[in-house]
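User: Run a structure prediction on this.
Assistant: Running it now.
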Amino acid sequence: MLTAAASLVGTVAWSGDPLSLPLAFAFPALWALSPSRIVAALVSGGYFLAASRGLPQGVANFYSSDLWPGLLLWFGASLAFVAVHTVLWTSRPSGKRAARYGLAALLMAVPPFGIVGWAHPLTAAGALLPGWGWFGLATAATGLVTMTTRVWPAAAVVLGGAWLWSVASWTDPSPPKGWKGVDLELGQSLGRDVKLEQHHDLIATVRRAAGEGASIVVLPESALGFWTPTVERLWRAELRGVDVTVIAGSAIVDPQGYDNVMIAISATRGDILYRERMPVPVSMWQPWLAWTGQDGGARAHFFANPVVELGGRRIAPLICYEQLILWPVLQSMLHAPEVIVATGNGWWTAGTSIATIQKASAEAWARLFGIPLVTAFNL
């Protein structure tokens, strides 16, 4: 029953609606109610696998394969979450159990375990306490830990009241004035097969947005394909006479591998704005290649460039996978950004809720810290 309840919590909380995220606060109570370490492992596995249920289909879409590789990766990714919560589970009540859950939550928030720290309940802080910032995060963390103690029913009532208040007063975060995020529906051709015609279509989209008053236009991850001098010259020439700056996803390739980046382009310059801190493990980030003396894969810049500046504003950039885990967001928030820019190329998520979960997570963080949000996704 506990495992079934945890699976239900994982399914509903991580459905892609930011206001459903607070249901994840039930997970620590179910973990604490487990009568044995084995049951705690089953509860943890049920929650994580349900929350990440879109992964098998997503992997199958990405590699054009059957579900088996995705299923193996799905179960493999759950091992860290299950192992941490199983090892730290204890039958001792109250204080010791709460401390151990707090440690488990911390471990799943930062590397190395945080690299696969999806479905972290703290993501729901913004849906519970919008605008509370760091104090709201600390309050939510306290609520999470309290859910593992004997007073969890009282904590659940308080958290439920905050949830209802948030639902009644919720407003979606919006972009700053003059900023516009552009969603695309170009499927897997974006980033993999960016031809000259597609560049011209994207430039026309940017020019239309500029004509409607946008001074900064954000395009999805991988929108430009590979960043080369030829691509830079094309865009700068086509933007001549248009007072607009474009933030667009691209890849910079060298003999050792590549960087997944955001590029800032205008008529006068084209610069690397941001290098992704945490690319998708396995499909992009493949550290074992370097360990075995091979080349290839995306580089992870981990704690580099948590904020960047553009037009006098501090930006917290989040590319795709970074929206699903905690530490990139929290590291950026330490630098008091003025806007969050969240992009993704989610064509491979067709038939799953992964892309909507990414957007919901970004919205929750933006609401927690009261920061404008600009999103741009390709599906």
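DSSP finds 15 helices and nine strands in the chain.
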